[in-house]
Design a protein that fits this description.
16 strands; Jelly Rolls; alpha+beta; six-stranded antiparallel beta sheet
Length: 422
Amino acid sequence: MRCICILFVIASLLYGCKNATERTIDEYNETFDKVSVMEQMYEKFDMNDFSALELCAIYNTGKELSYNYDPMGLDAQQVAACEALKLRVEKLRNAITDKIQSGITDFKITSWKNDDMLFETTHSFPIYLKRGEKLYWTISAQKRATVKIINIDSRKILKTYTGKTSITDSLIVENSAIYLVEINPNGVQYIGFDIKYKVGDISRFGKATKINVEEVACNRGDFGAKPLQGITMQKLFEEPRKFTLRSQFKALFSGGSKALVVIQVPAGATDILYSIRIATSEQDRSEDGEFYDNLSHSYKKVKMLGLPLYEKEQSKGLFSTLLDDNRPIREEDAYCNMYVFRNMSQAKQFQDGTKSANQLNYDVDYSTIGTQSCNGRIPAKGAKTIYLAFENERVRYTNYLWVEAVAVVPKTEYYKTKYSVK
């Protein structure tokens, strides 16, 4: 890098010599000394000591080298000296640019490299190449891996290596396109890789073409389609189920302090997500009835940030994210008991009042005593019907209840990685 800095300084001085009419002989002497130093550096110049970006900068600097002088006021000997210096600068400029231009055909540019990367799934490494350029790859795996070289634009697999631990190969590309080196570890293992390329033109040297990468939804049979477990949601009530839970005292005269919501679990549903708003006023709110829409919107945001993986051990995290984004506003003085029954007979006994809740077999894990407005999740566990029972145990105050529910059904979604040149 020190050599490059000196080259830049010298180049800027030489470039400034264009307006030599007002320059002095001292400026000539200074330029002469600088050129002498630069020529000595050039004799030791080795392209392998620099990166492609650094070489490109040196090339551009070399192209700008020039020296001009104003012969007015100079004697013949001085003019001859200035002319000789001008020729030396031109010779040095041509030498630098010619050497780099001819050397790029043998210079490998590193695109991707990692000596010891942990692979758990397939990874693809994109690179844009123009027709006639050459791609090189070296793969070193602990265990047998599968490697593919793909022209992603034409959706053509150019080479495949199956069950290999060591691969070194190259390919001259026939078309200008985005190419992928795809590495499948076939398990979990550390893999080293070194992906390089050669170009044939200085305009492609030192500045790799940027590639935009995004995940997009696709159909099952599309090239590069990857199955991922997502979810689909079904709205269970067209409108919120609204109930009045009378206080224990008022229920002695009219109405009741209990309510029962029957949830029919759709085929294939694994979970029920619910939202309960409890208030001391029976006035509706604008957000009532929007639970399903809000959940759907939150799920779309999750997919935009990163593809959701719906698996048994991970689904709770997904549901927590969706529910946290859509919690109902709580009212301090409004609360009741919520019981989850999985048996119709038990639920009916609660509703009829023939037995109190503590005498019945309700699902303790998902029931809540003294809950305020909330939302939550109830696993279906194969049940076709789930019963949500509510009870106001307060003596004086009546509560009003709005219940919404959504069924969650696992669904296989397909995505592919879309590559495009920026």
